[in-house]
Specification:
- With 189 residues, this protein is α/β, with parallel strands linked by helices.
- It contains seven helices and eight strands, in the order ααβαβαβαβαββββα.
- The protein has one domain: Vaccinia Virus protein VP39 (Rossmann fold), CATH 3.40.50.150.
- Strands 3-2-1-4-5-8-7-6 form an eight-stranded mixed sheet.
- Helix 6 links the parallel strand 4 and strand 5.
Length: 189
């Protein structure tokens, strides 16, 4: 698994150590960052939920994100993320939170231009986490984006609170959905 673009393009990353963890394919990762407008996250903050090996957040850092918070509950995976951050030189631009995503969401005080979410395929009910991210007080900035990777056989709703689906892409067995956080002023008009 390699970084696809940016400052550390081509560097090899350590993969997942947990059998329940599935890394985002290089093809899907490249597509995500080719679809996202760079100005959305460049020089901004990114949140990588269910981070696994950290490949999505590291891709964002390589392409110009100022800061990435990685959230992963598996301690072995947290160590993989730290190793990958050392390999890429992004330790000073990031923090690894070894915590449950649901619990940590309520404690985050920062706002993020981009939230990346690639949970294990076995997690079939993503709705509650996405609903929380669609709340007015969620960590996503107004006009920020949420990118959700999941099994192509799982269907998500087109709207979760202030989040609206703007694109759905499929890559083999993977699906990637892009949601934009719309101002509540627009929703109520």
């Amino acid at each position: 698994m390699r970084v696809n673009g940016g400052k550390v393009k081509g560097l090899r990353l350590k993969g997942a150590v947990s059998s329940g963890t599935r890394a985002t394919t290089e093809r899907a990762r490249a597509a995500i960052f080719n679809i996202l407008p760079g100005e959305l996250y460049q020089e901004g903050r990114v949140l990588d939920l269910f981070a696994g090996s950290g490949s999505l957040g590291i891709e964002a850092l390589s392409r110009g994100a100022e800061w990435v918070d990685f959230v992963e509950w598996d301690r072995r995976q947290c160590q993989v993320i730290r190793t990958n951050l050392e390999t890429t030189g992004f330790v000073a631009s990031s923090e690894v939170h070894c915590a449950d995503v649901g619990r940590l969401l309520g404690r985050l005080t920062e706002k993020y231009a981009l939230v990346l979410m690639d949970p294990p395929y076995a997690m079939e009910d993503l709705g509650p986490v996405i609903e929380r991210l669609g709340e007015d007080n969620s960590p996503i900035e107004e006009d920020g984006m949420l990118v959700v990777g999941h099994s192509r056989f799982l269907e998500l709703l087109p709207k979760y609170g202030s989040l609206r689906q703007v694109s759905l892409r499929r890559y083999g067995d993977n699906a990637v959905e892009f949601f934009e956080k719309i101002s509540t002023r627009i929703i109520n008009e």
